[in-house]
Structures are given as structure tokens and as C-alpha cells.
Amino acid sequence: MVARVVPVAPFDLVVFGATGDLARRKLLPALYHRLHDGQMPIEARVIGAARAQMDAEGFRRLAAEALDEFVAPADLDPDSRRRFLATLDYVPLDVTKDDDWQALADTLGAPDPERPRAFYLSVAPRFFGVIAERIAAAGLAGAHGRIVVEKPFGHDLPSARALNQSLARHFDEGRIYRIDHYLGKETVQNLMALRFANALFEPLWNAHHVDHVQITVAETVGVGGRGPYYDGVGAMRDMVQNHLLQLLCLTAMEPPARLRPDDVRDEKLKVLRALAPVDAARDVVRGQYGAGPGVASYADDVGDADTRTESFVALRAHVENWRWSGVPFYLRTGKRLRARMSEIAVAFKDPPHSIFAGAGGRAGANVLAIRLQPDEGITLSMTVKDPGPGGMRLTPAELDMTFAEQLGGGGLRMPDAYERLVMDVIRGDQTLFMRGDEVEAAWRWVDPIIAAWEERGERPALYDPGSSGPEDALMLMHRDGRRWREISA
């Protein structure tokens, strides 16, 4: 199968924080792949901006090293590498210095309404407002310039509102792109295609047929070098408020009238507003990984023996509308777990009557599993007859569509999420980006949970590294007569 590539117009992209980890690991390799595949034109300009004192040639050397490290050797074509590096430029920039901004303005030139221009803020959130103000004051964006911001989108509802207001003073909402890389994953987009481009599942996608939904984002790594940052955030703010709630929204939302950015985001917002408040003591479990053989505890990783920050969260949520009334959504995320896995699993109800009461073997529930990582794909668990002449014996089986196998024959590479998202910014397509009111609605639901934790002052339950999380998380499901799906690679 050959992927269809739709080229974009020549553009200017300014990457603030261009010497940082995100730019090296994700943004520069993503742009290289888009040029290599013929989507990014060689007339495009990618201008790095950071405090590091270097010239354009020095930035190209840094970018070359990033490509060598983070692009698979089979995908690193010498001619494409050379052409990509030729699109790069660099301006040393301290956001507080007027002369540095003038140098950036001189490099960019006047905005061209026919040439998309975007500003990617790969910097700490405290700089978002001042950079947006400086871009506007210097006239760099013009009437059509776009600004891209990475999470975290605030620390709570008041800070999210303040951030939105700060950006809105200089950019219309239609030009603000809040990026959540989970929404750029092929499987997440295929969730919408699966539901709305096929007649098979949507009639069953409701409380009459769905027993429950599980959303899991599991990591094997600890906090690592992010310890000081992470200890002030925790799993609820770092993962649940954005990634997991966005996956819940895409799973639970109503069909939009059209595949237009605001139509999709309107439906996601309705889901967030329909989330019932949760009892933090009954419906939520917090965990923190302890020490194991050759593995430091979370407290050791962050250097605080008394830390009360969670590295694991499991919770039960309900969407209070007609489609999902009574259907629990179980969300789970954590570090130092058994395997790296991200998955949405829709578990359907058992048949209303079984004619196989005397049959041997065992029947399994029908589960549609949408796997985001490590191997993107979709599986559907079915019950079938066990082959052979031994009578009617039932056995579970899976219909498997692993994208790398089904769609990747002939050497098709599955694009990284950032490749799609950056190109969507250039095209002006906000479908896969969070709107300001979405961000605030998510914080409005999450904040009372965090406030209840802080009021109780309890430490998170310890769990062993390499496990599935604390025992209390298992009990959260067991009380409902259900079980978590196994965390497996």
C-alpha cells in the first residue's frame, strides 16, 4: 500500500527552544520525514530560536546530529538530509532583549498572506505569554500567523484561564494550536474512522450494548530527569487531564455534523461537560512506585522522602447522557509498570441468552481494543468454535489488524504523531488540537479531585515497579465485578 502525500505550500516555521530535547527528538526528525516523503517543500524555512549562541551552520550541525540519532538508518537518505538541512536557519534569541527580536524580524521579513507562518513554542509555559506579546508587537505574525503551544496548559483552572487570556490578547482562537501528540497518532484518528466511516460499530456504541470502557496508558520508565518538574505535577495533571480525557472524549463523543475542526471539538466539549463529579475517596486510586531490584523508588528519584505526588492514577468516570448512562469508563495511567502500552478497550455486553450452556471450552467477552502503542492497531475479541470433531467447544479468538502489517507491506512507514500535527498547523487544520474551552472544562472536572487529595493529605499507595499498579486499583474494578485488561507489550 502506498501512502498518499498531499504537499503543503511553502511556509515559515519558527521553533522557539530549538536546541531543546523536544526539537531534537521530535520536531526536527518529523520535519525531515515530511520533506523526505515529498510533503514539505524545499522552499520552506525552519528558523530555530533559542538562547544558545550559535550561527545557522551550528544549528544545522545540531540538527544533523539529531537526525543521525533519532531517524532510523533505513529512512535517512543523504540527499533528503542535505536538502532538509538547507531549509534551516537560526537566530540567537533572549525573549527579554529587543535587539534579538529585531534580528528575528530581519530574518523572517514581512509576513506574506500567501505564505503560512507558524511559531512553535517548545519552551516552558511561563514564556508563552511574553513570546506571544513580542511576536504581536514586532508584527511578525501578520493576520494569518499561527502559534503552537505544548502542554501543560496550566496547572489548574485559574492558571489555564489566565494562559488562555494571555494568548487571546494577541492571537484569535482560530490561530492558537494547543498540541497533544496523542491526538496525532494514527490509531486515534482511526477510532473516528472506525466509528463514523463504517456501519458496523456505531449502532452498538451505546449503553445498550457496551458494558464498560477501559483506557490505559502505561509506562515502564520512572520520572528520570523530569523528577523536579514531575513532583510538582503528578500523574493526574501530567496525563489524565489531557491525554486520557482526550481519548475518553473521542471514544464517547457523538458523531459531528461534518469533519470540521469546531464540529469535532464541540462534540468533545459536550463529553467533558457531561462527566459526572467523582468521589475521590471511592472512585479514584493514587499510587507511587516503590523501590525494586536495581530500581530506585519514586521518592528517591525526586529526592524527597516525604513526597505525596502520585505516579499512578486509576479512576472510574461516568458520562451522564443518553448514550452512555450507566456505562463506567475506567482510566488508568502510571510509571514503572509492567509494560509500555496505550490502549482503548471497549468491552461489549454478553449475549442476552446463551444456547451453549452445555458446550465445552469457554466463551470470551467481545472486546474492541484500539492500541496506540507500542504496535498501533485494532483487535476484536470473538468467541468461535474450537476446530476439530470434539463437539461444540468454544474458544476465544482475535481478529487482528496491526497497521504495520496490514498497511505497511511494501515498506510503508507509520508516521510519528508530530509529523501530522505540524503539517496540520501549516494547513490551518485545528481538528486534532485542543480548544481553550476544552482545556478549561477538563481542569474544571479534575481540580476537585486534586483538592480532595490535598485536603486529606494521604500518601499514595506504594506499588512494586514492574507490576500493574497498587492493589487498590484492582479492587476498584473487582467491586464492580470486572477486571483490568492485562498490561502487556
TrEMBL record:
Active site: H243 (proton acceptor)
EC number: 1.1.1.49
Any one Gene Ontology cellular component term annotated for this protein: cytosol
Record keywords, A-Z: Carbohydrate metabolism, Glucose metabolism, NADP, Oxidoreductase
Domain Glucose-6-phosphate dehydrogenase NAD-binding: 14-190
Binding site for substrate: H181, K185, E219, D238, K335
Known pathway: Carbohydrate degradation; pentose phosphate pathway; D-ribulose 5-phosphate from D-glucose 6-phosphate (oxidative stage): step 1/3
Top EC class, one word: oxidoreductase
UniProt entry tagged with the keyword Oxidoreductase: yes
Chain ranges of the Glucose-6-phosphate dehydrogenase C-terminal domain: 192-485
Record's keyword annotation contains Oxidoreductase: yes
Catalysed conversion reaction: D-glucose 6-phosphate + NADP(+) = 6-phospho-D-glucono-1,5-lactone + NADPH + H(+)
Lineage: superkingdom: Bacteria
Annotated residues for binding of NADP(+): G17, A18, T19, G20, D21, L22, A23, R24, R51, D94, V95, K151
GO BP annotations listed: glucose metabolic process; pentose-phosphate shunt, oxidative branch
Gene Ontology molecular function: any one: glucose-6-phosphate dehydrogenase activity
Function: Catalyzes the oxidation of glucose 6-phosphate to 6-phosphogluconolactone.
Family, per entry: Belongs to the glucose-6-phosphate dehydrogenase family.
Entry-linked PANTHER family: GLUCOSE-6-PHOSPHATE 1-DEHYDROGENASE (PTHR23429:SF0), GLUCOSE-6-PHOSPHATE 1-DEHYDROGENASE G6PD (PTHR23429)
Protein name: Glucose-6-phosphate 1-dehydrogenase
Species of the source: Oceanicella actignis
Name of encoding gene: zwf
